[in-house]
C-alpha cells in the first residue's frame, strides 16, 4: 500500500511533486490532495498516495546523493514540489548517525553495531522540524497564510521558526499557565502566542472548533488539517538512516512513541525504499519506546491487545505524553508484523539513560532520547533485542529543553585554586 | 604567511597531515609540532605552518566536495591526519548558510545579498565544537589522555561532549558559584567538573599553574597548551562560507570578537583559499563585533590605536566578555587592512537584534549572535557596511543557552477557549 501507482486525481492547481492523492488508511477511499485529514466515508485517517512509477533506482539514488544536505534531497519521495530546496524553509534533516561504540560497550552490543540517529542537530533541535517543514510546503501549496498548532514544547518552536523563515504568520496556542522558560522558547520567533485559559485538552478542543469556523480560514494547523502532509516528514528519518548506513536497512530500530505517527512513517519509508529498489529487501524489526507513566501502547502490546486503552500521562517525558495515541493500533501492527516489540521504562531509568548517553557519546538528549536508550537497554537485558545486529536508536530532541530532568547533576569536586587542594581531591 | 612550503621540521611520530611545524606569529621562529603555544624566543603566539605544496586546485576542490558533511571535508587544510573522519570525534561543521532575505529587507540590504552562518547547528550548539574537535585530534596525536579547559559556558559543553565521544577523560574547571543551569549543561557529559573557590581569573591562574606542574602531565588544555591547533578550527568557518557561496569569497563578513582568535583565523582561511586557487582573489572586508560592555577592540579601532586597553566586562554577551583579548592587535590589523571596521552595540540592542533575527529568519541566537546582527544593523545605518554587497553574519551560539536575555518575551494574548474570545482579541 505504501507505494502506489495511480491515475492522477490531484487538483491540477496543486503541485506537490509525486503526491497523487489522499487515500484512507482504513477503507482505501481516495480524494484529491487538499487540507483534509479524515476520510469522508469512514472517518479513517487519510495519508498520501504517491506516483513513483517513473523512477529508475540507480538514477534516483544518484539524484538523492547529489541533493542538498537536508530532507529535500528526498524531494522525489515527498509531497513537495521539485524545486522545494529553493524556497524559504527551515531545511532540517541530514542529522548525524553516530556510531555509538562507547554506548555499545555499556549496553553489551557488538562493536560497530549500535548507532544513534541524533535529531537534536535540527534547526530548533527536535525532529519536529522535519514534519513542520513538510507541513509548511503543503500550507504554501494550498494558499494558507497562517501556520498554527497547539503545543506545549518542541512543536511550538518548530512552527514559530519555520513560519518566520518562510514569511508566514504564525499563531501557536498553549495553556496560559505554562512555565516561563517554555513560553520564552515559543515566543521568541515573534508570531502570535496565545495563552488559553484552560488545560491542554481545552486548547486542542478550541483548535478543532477554530478549524471548522470561518475565523480559521487560511489557517494551516500543521498536525490537524495538514496532518497527512506533516506526518510524511517522519519518512525522512528512515531514508537518512538507510542512506547513512550505505543504502542498507538496519536490522533493528528503536523509535519513541507519542501519537505513534513517527513509527508508522518510518516503517512506510523503509517499505518505499525496498519497493523502489534503493535498499536490498531483508527483515527488519521496529521497536516502540514509551515512558511507564504514559505507556498505553506498551501495555496493549504486552497484553496482546489490538486496541489501545487511553491513560492519563504522568511522566517527565512530556514530549511523549499522549495518553490516547491516534496511531497506537498501527504501531501494534508494525511491531508484531516485523517481530519487534513495545516496551516502557520508569522516569528514573529515563534520567539514567540520558546520563549514560551523554557520558558515553557526548549526546545530551531530551527525555524522549532517555526513553529510547533506556528501552534499548531493557530490551537487550530481556533478550528481546539482538545485540549482534545493526541497531539504530532515535534521539528526537535536545537536553537543553528538558534541563530539569538532570537538575541533580553537578560538580564532581570543589577545590581551592592551588595544586595542593587539587592533589587532595585526587584529581591528578 | 598563511600558506607556506617548508622543509619538514615535524616530530616524525606526530601525524597531523599537512601541518609541518609551529611558527611564531611575531618573529617567525619555527619549532616542531608539539603541545606548546608561546615562542621560546620572543613569547609571541605560535601558529601552524602548513605544507600545501603538493595540492592541485581542481583535485583539492573535488576531494573536499566528496568529503563528509562536517569540518573533516577540509582535512587536507587542517592539522589532522588524513583518516580523521574515521576516528571518534564530535564531527561539527557544515552548518547552514541561511539566505536571510527577510532580515535583509529589515536591515535595508539588497535581496539575496545577506546570509547568516548559523553555528547553532553544531553538536553542542556553538562554534566551540569546531575548535575543540580540532584540539582533540592534536591531543590524540600527542598522546594526551585528559582533555581540559576553564570555561563558564559553551567551551565546557564542547569539551565534555567531545571527550566523551572520543573516550578521553575530561576535566573542566569553573568558578564554584556558577548558576545551576550552566553547571548542569557542563556536568551532564559525566567528566570531572571541578568548582574552584574563586572567580574566573582565579580559575585561569590555577589552570596555568597546573600546566607547568607534573600533576598536569598528559593533560591537554584545549585553549592553552593546545591553542595553536584549537584555533585552526575557526578556519573551517571561512572554508564553509566560501564553498556554500559556490566557491566565492563574500564581500563582507561580520564576526564576533571575544579573544579575537576566530576573526584572525577566518582571515587566514580566506587567504589560504585564495593562494590555493580555490576561490578567485578579490577584496573582502572583515568587520568585528563587540558588546559595548566589553568593547576594548572597538574602542581601540575607533581611537586609531594599535594596542588594546583592557576593560572590565559588564555585558549580557558573556560568551564574548574577554576584557583583555589576546588577538586584539591582530584584529585591528585585519579590520584596517581589509577596509573593515570594529563596532559595538548596547545590551539593549543585543536583545533587540536577537528578537529581530528570530522573527525574520526563525534563528534563535545566543547573545553573541545578537551582537553580530546588532552591529551589522549599526554599520549599515552608519554607511560603513555596503548593503549592496554579499554579506555574511556569524551566529556562533544558541539562544537556548542564554534564555535570560529574552526572558521578557511572552504571550501576545490570553483568551478563553472559545471563538468569541478569539474574535475579541482580534486574532482572526
Automatic annotation (TrEMBL), chains A, B:
Q: InterPro entries this protein is in?
A: Ser/Thr_Dehydratase (IPR050147), Thr_synthase-like (IPR004450), TrpB-like_PALP (IPR001926), TrpB-like_PALP_sf (IPR036052)
Q: Which UniProt keywords apply?
A: Lyase, Pyridoxal phosphate
What Gene3D superfamilies does the annotation carry? 3.40.50.1100
Q: What class of enzyme is it?
A: lyase
EC annotation from Swiss-Prot or TrEMBL: 4.2.3.1
Q: Which cofactor does it need?
A: pyridoxal 5'-phosphate
List N6-(pyridoxal phosphate)lysine occurrences by residue.
Answer: 128
Q: List the molecular function annotations (GO) for this entry.
A: L-serine ammonia-lyase activity; threonine deaminase activity; threonine synthase activity
All copies of domain Tryptophan synthase beta chain-like PALP, residue ranges: 92-397
> Biological process (GO) annotations?
isoleucine biosynthetic process; L-serine catabolic process; L-threonine catabolic process; threonine biosynthetic process
Which family, according to the similarity comment?
A: Belongs to the threonine synthase family.
| Entries under NCBIfam families matching the protein | thrC
The name on file for this protein is Threonine synthase
Q: Which organism is it from?
A: Streptomyces regalis
Q: What is the lineage of its organism?
A: Bacteria, Bacillati, Actinomycetota, Actinomycetes, Kitasatosporales
Amino acid at each position: 500500500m505504501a507505494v502506489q501507482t495511480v491515475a492522477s486525481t490531484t487538483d491540477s492547481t496543486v503541485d506537490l511533486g509525486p503526491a497523487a492523492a489522499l487515500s484512507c488508511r482504513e477503507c482505501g477511499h481516495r480524494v484529491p490532495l487538499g487540507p483534509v485529514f479524515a476520510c469522508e466515508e469512514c472517518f479513517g485517517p487519510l495519508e498520501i498516495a504517491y506516483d513513483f512509477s517513473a523512477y529508475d533506482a540507480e538514477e534516483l539514488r544518484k539524484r538523492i546523493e547529489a541533493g542538498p544536505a537536508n530532507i529535500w534531497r528526498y524531494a522525489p519521495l515527498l509531497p513537495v514540489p521539485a524545486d522545494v530546496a529553493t524556497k524559504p524553509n527551515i531545511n532540517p534533516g541530514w542529522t548525524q548517525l553516530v556510531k555509538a561504540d562507547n554506548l555499545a560497550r555499556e549496553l553489551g552490543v557488538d562493536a560497530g553495531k549500535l548507532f544513534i540517529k541524533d535529531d537534536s542537530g535540527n534547526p530548533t533541535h527536535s525532529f519536529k522540524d522535519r514534519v513542520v517543514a513538510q507541513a509548511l510546503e503543503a500550507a504554501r501549496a494550498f494558499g494558507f497564510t497562517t501556520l498554527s498548532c497547539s503545543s506545549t514544547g518542541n512543536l511550538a518552536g518548530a512552527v514559530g521558526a519555520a513560519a518566520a523563515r518562510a514569511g508566514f504568520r504564525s499563531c501557536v496556542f498553549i495553556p496560559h499557565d505554562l512555565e516561563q522558560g517554555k513560553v520564552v522558547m515559543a515566543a521568541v520567533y515573534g508570531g502570535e502566542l496565545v495563552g488559553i485559559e484552560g488545560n491542554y485538552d481545552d486548547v486542542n478542543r478550541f483548535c478543532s472548533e477554530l478549524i471548522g469556523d470561518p475565523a480559521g480560514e487560511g489557517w494551516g494547523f500543521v498536525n490537524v488539517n495538514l496532518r497527512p502532509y506533516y506526518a510524511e516528514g517522519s519518512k525522512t528519518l528512515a531514508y537518512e538512516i538507510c542512506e547513512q548506513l550505505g543504502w542498507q536497512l538496519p536490522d533493528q530500530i528503536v523509535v519513541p512513541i507519542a501519537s505513534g505517527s513517527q513509527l508508522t512513517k518510518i516503517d512506510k519509508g523503509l517499505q518505499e525504499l525496498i519497493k523502489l529498489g534503493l535498499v536490498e529487501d531483508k527483515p527488519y524489526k521496529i521497536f516502540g519506546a514509551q515512558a511507564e507513566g504514559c505507556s498505553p501502547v506498551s501495555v496493549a502490546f504486552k497484553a496482546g491487545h489490538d486496541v489501545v486503552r487511553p491513560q492519563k500521562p504522568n511522566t517527565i517525558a512530556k514530549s511523549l505524553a499522549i495518553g490516547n495515541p491516534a496511531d497506537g493500533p498501527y504501531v501494534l501492527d508494525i511491531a508484531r508484523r516485523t517481530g519487534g516489540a513495545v516496551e516502557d521504562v520508569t522516569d528514573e531509568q529515563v534520567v539514567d539513560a540520558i546520563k549514560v548517553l551523554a557520558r558515553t557519546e557526548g549526546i545530551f538528549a531530551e527525555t524522549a532520547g532517555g526513553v529510547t536508550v533506556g528501552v534499548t537497554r531493557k530490551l537487550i537485558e530481556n533478550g528481546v533485542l539482538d545485540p549482534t545486529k545493526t541497531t539504530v536508536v532515535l534521539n528526537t530532541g535536545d537536553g537543553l529543553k528538558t534541563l530539569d530532568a538532570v537538575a541533580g547533576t553537578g560538580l564532581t569536586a570543589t577545590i581551592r585554586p592551588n595544586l595542593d587542594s587539587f592533589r587532595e581531591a585526587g584529581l591528578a
